[in-house]
Amino acid sequence: MRYRALVAAILATLALHAGSSNINSRYTVENVEIVPARQPSISSRLKTDITRIVGQRLDQSVIDSLRDRLKFETGARNVIQMLVRGGTPNAVKVVFQVERRERRYDIEIPKLLYHTRQGVSGQADGVMNINGHRLAAGYVNDGDQSVERFSGLRASYEKRNVGGRYRFRIEFQNYWSQWSTPARQSLAAAGLAPGLYRSRWAIEPEAAVQLGNSLVYSFGVSVQSLQMQFPAARTEAANAVIQSLRFHRRWRAADTTQIFDAGYRLHAATTFLASDFAYTRHSWDARYRVRRGNHEMMLAFNAGTLGGRGPLHERFVAGNSTCLRGWDKYEITPAGKTHLAAGTVEYTYKLFQAFYDMGNAWNPGEALTVRHSLGAGIRAGARGPVLSLAFPARAGRLTPIFLTTLNF
């Protein structure tokens, strides 16, 4: 009898975790537990919403939403949601396991990349987390993200869960710029050589507010100073208003998980802000992922426009580690462009990954040439290193690009 009871309990637990969202809806939430129990940064509004689901039918979309809000407010590295068999039939206990950083002081490497044509790019930060306050300072050397290779110091302060729904962040940057020969030649041919600068520093305070369960709006300013090179050494200001809107939603049914993330960001600089540059930069991005067992499919799209006279680092590039992999940015966008549209289709099975990129960057009046690239690689886990070999799709000799990306 004990053996039968044990088998019945195991089968019931497996059925509870493997069943679809419709089957789970038959269960009633008996209790909600947060591990560890002491989470001082949780707002009273979130506590009320968590308590409210006790006694209600299990709704996986509501559970996912509460988990995302808990992660946002606590600033946790991750929040794992589990269902545990309750004390009565058709009852479950919801457990949220908050994975916080155990150490107050840490070393983080948010980016480490090797590109065959562009060399090594990376960033290393020393981080201090104390009672919801986060201080970070480190060194950056990046030849992948912008028109130029920039290197220097970067520091930031962040406070999460201000009033339960708000977050505040301020960042300081002090970079030196290096310009490749193709970039200098292309900028000179386009009449943009007066825009070359030796260094730039910036202060960017920004605040974010959570609107509902899936939407975050942020706003702030970017105060920049650039030491220009031509026609004579001088300093120019590039002060802009920053606004962004991000949407994040997760769905889960049976063994299938779907994640949709999209955002819009605006940089707008005018003489009203005492800026020597006057420009408007719009950028959009969207990403959809669906996971089922060992299979994962990802669709991504990003686009942008730049109007007016903006600093060269605000121009769009393609042919780097994220846009048109397989191409060389010094070949197709050495001086950057004012318009961008690109998309990606990516498939992953266990460690194997294959992708197809398409799109391009261009200036007004230029013929839009859609470029394509193909590639494959090995991914060691969701946040592990990625080794990729990408090929530009063009007539003639194929020149592969080797990429190594480490995400920590």
Question: Could you characterize the architecture of this molecule?
Answer:
It is a single chain. The chain is mainly β and 408 residues long. It folds into two domains: 2-99, Ubiquitin-like (UB roll) (Roll), CATH 3.10.20.310; 105-406, Porin. It is 14% helix and 55% strand. It has six helices and 19 strands. The strands form two sheets. A 16-stranded antiparallel barrel has the order 4-5-6-7-8-9-10-11-12-13-14-15-16-17-18-19. The protein starts with a helix and ends with a strand.
Question: Key features?
Answer:
disordered N terminus, Porin, 3-stranded mixed beta sheet, 55% strand, 14% helix, Ubiquitin-like (UB roll)
Structure described in brief:
The protein is mainly beta and 408 residues long. It is built from six helices and 19 strands.
Return the CATH topology of the largest domain: Porin
The CATH superfamily name of the largest domain is membrane protein fhac: a member of the omp85/tpsb transporter family
Number of structurally distinct domains: 2
- Portion of residues in beta strands equals over 45%
